[in-house]
Specification:
The structure is a homotrimer.
Chain A: H1 5-10, H2 45-58, E1 74-79, H3 85-96, E2 100-104, H4 117-130, E3 133-138, H5 143-150, E4 155-160, H6 166-180, E5 187-192, H7 197-206, E6 212-217, H8 225-233, E7 237-240, H9 244-247, E8 253-256, H10 283-289, E9 295-298, H11 318-336
Chain lengths: 339, 339, 339
């Protein structure tokens, strides 16, 4: 069996490492081309700026939406945990770039359900024979890293247990930059359940920006102390609050998040309605206490933490945040394929 | 952030209303281009004729099946209720036109399962950021209308509770026109459960045609009295029957439908076999009592209401009806995109 | 309604039989073009050689991976039973050839769940109106054959109950030929549960090759006696073993397979962990007792029958076997479409 360029292209032989079969992707200075996307720790400020700029070009007059830079490439979704927004924004980003999509949205359709974690690694390895990039969500923290270890193609972490959710953080950072023209000098309030993986990833990204982190957690749901230490080591102010009314005037952004339920790995599913959030952001409270330019973000779906009467106010940027999930992931995929 | 033509094309910013971003779609006389498809009430006789003609062209010698009028467009499926025929005929219609498909076939793969209806609206809004047209089935009557209210892209109702199923009615009407060369002057018998949403939609469409409606419902499963009033207000004869043997010679078409089970919203699923239909259409009864040109239709899957021994008889048009689901939906999508 | 070439191409009218609408596909000497793929019994040695040669071309320098021979064609997946590798290798093979994919990965998303077998035939017939080739897995032995009887498009059996799994056998045979340059004169040991449908299909294929079949089944899980008779009628040696240590030095290939659990039709699903295999292939036992060139195959997912410490040894060819699933199915689809 001869190793030919056609075979490399079709990728049914494992690559020794991402980028290894194409020297042009092995460039040390490019943190995206041929690389896994596992953690926000992979990116410094200039890497993130590269991503924002690539996203900006998708909004420009010159961008040709009929271009198909990823034609012939296949994105494989391997979602061992429920998702709508994250899965569909990755999948439609691939389709918008001319690529194709396959995979599974539900571990129950695979014979993987009920198998040991080791068998999951077999599945990841196998999937990498069939596609060109793998997007995975898994209830076990660290599972995408294990996938990256065995996969012959780049792996995107679309959320792992209590770990990270880097592409959500990229979208959040891009939305802040789009709204304020900068990320430095912003004061951002995180409310309710600060253990969320999207918040962890966002805070790792924010370490590179001169911003203030304000926290108003529900009882027992505060920031990981290690993360707080790390932020302070980077010179960031981390400020604890106990009262929404007093916190609001002091911040530019409120990042609301629901209390973890189905994201918690190994927690049995429940049919009881969400418990009411201890803090609910409403139109009233914003109109009375927030600064005029305050911006509200939320990683949907919301439960009780954000009232729908905020939807029609100028504070609402969570629709824009959701919409930005598409162009940011289009830009990321383009960079990963060296386009 | 500049609003550019590329952005409009990629549609990650909400449109104020379908058609609003493209003046050429705002034409009052076109009921399809850029419009939602929620109810058969949207269409008069000339609108339906426009759809049939567009479907006819797909059957013509001149039609070029390699044409890709919807290349680069994405159809999103959001099925909160089970479907095979309806979902796949929409999806393959989109693929046949050169478009792409994403979405979900099962609410269980989304985090929407167990959430409040309000959260479903968030999901619909979000989906509309990622695709160009949204097809949805939902157990709640009226849910697609709510989706249309929040979505920035056209919404197709693929069945809502006890509401409507307009694209099925379009397929049924086209099949009748194809078989008889007309829809006027047909006598159509509806049997068994007349509360079905596909029957409701079909009867709304039939109001525009000079036809007779014959009814042979199971006990407690008759036509909605409002719908009967409406048909009579349009000058249509509505005739009740109590005996299949006497009804058959008087009609040109039998539209058989199973007793509602899994279509009924909020009715708990059951593993017990379907209860036998009170009326079963068999080869014997047709050969003894039906006119020579009688045509049997059925919205599959069938349960006990239609015997498989009818399959090989000349009465069977339900395979053709099922097959027509593809070209009718291709024509509809083309018209919706102004092609 | 006129039957035109466009209609035939779009295939929304049933064909009388595969190949019937295109005389060029009716060639008696071609066992692939326009034909169903239901059983390895359809193929003799020269047919299989045709498939291997077509697969070889996908590995050649001259192969152009950007070619789209199946552009505009739709593959429909109808998986009534769980699958990851088989479904995704068929689907991505279709995508790699420029085609599209639709269907369902889980019978629960269709209204077919809980319906009678007769309704499954309705579904198969209906699916064939929407696509160009149908791939199906079903817990009932013989279901794909029934599908082929009603479908107007070619059907691929992707595993039926205790029946067959022909495309897996094609992949296994190709992998053997790739490794050894031949299939004749190989000595192949089958361990553990020899009732598996992939083993049945492989042994039917191996009847055409001058090889020795060695068996080391778990208690009560031996080869079907009819299959043994058939192999001997073809002049093949079938040798029973009771001790792995003594069997290993006598063979060139070990084909390990897990004890049947979820593949067994109508067997209730169980949440208890797999029972430990009575034979486990480990690195130690291979290094001490196997010949240097011995090759281990496995139809993943594995349970207890194959230790992960074999992964890094030169005995491991199961990753290559998994990877070959893509090009073999690409070649098969090309041949089925006469390309």
């Amino acid at each position: 069996m001869m190793v030919t360029s056609a075979m490399r292209d079709i990728r049914w032989t494992p690559r020794s490492a991402p980028g290894a079969d194409d020297p042009s992707l092995a460039n040390d200075t490019d943190r995206f081309a041929g690389q896994h996307v596992l953690s926000m720790r992979q990116y410094d400020r200039s890497d993130l700026e590269q991503l924002y700029t690539a996203t900006d070009t998708l909004f420009s007059e010159e961008y040709d939406a009929s271009d198909k830079p990823l034609e012939g490439k296949i994105l494989l979704s391997a979602f061992f945990e429920k998702s709508t927004r994250t899965r569909l924004s990755h999948e439609t980003a691939m389709l918008r770039l001319g690529g194709s999509v396959s995979g599974f949205a539900d571990a129950q359709v695979t014979r993987a359900a009920g198998l040991a974690q080791e068998a999951h690694e077999d599945i990841y390895r196998m999937l990498s024979f069939y596609g060109d990039v793998l997007v995975t969500r898994h209830p076990d923290t660290g599972a995408p890293g294990k996938a990256a270890h065995v996969a012959s193609i780049p792996v995107i972490n679309a959320g792992d247990g209590l770990g990270e959710h880097p592409t959500q953080a990229m979208t959040d950072l891009y939305t802040l930059r789009q709204e304020f023209g900068r990320i430095d000098d912003l004061r951002i309030l995180f409310t309710e359940d600060l253990r969320m993986r999207c918040i962890r990833s966002l805070l790792i990204g924010l370490q590179h920006y001169n911003c203030e982190i304000h926290c108003l957690p529900a009882a027992g749901k505060g920031l990981d102390p290690t993360l707080v230490q790390e932020l302070r080591a980077h010179g960031r102010l981390v400020i604890e609050h106990s009262d929404l009314i007093r916190a609001l005037p002091a911040v530019d952004v409120v990042y609301t998040s629901p209390t973890l339920r189905d994201d918690v790995p190994r927690q049995p599913p429940t049919d009881t309605p969400s418990q009411p959030s201890s803090v609910t952001i409403t139109r009233d409270v914003l109109e009375q206490h927030a600064g005029a330019g305050l911006v509200v973000l939320n990683e949907l779906p919301r439960r009780g933490e954000l009232s729908s009467d905020v939807d029609e106010t100028p504070f609402n940027r969570y629709w824009k945040q959701a919409a930005n999930g598409l162009p940011v992931r289009m830009a990321l995929l383009k960079l990963m394929f060296g386009k």
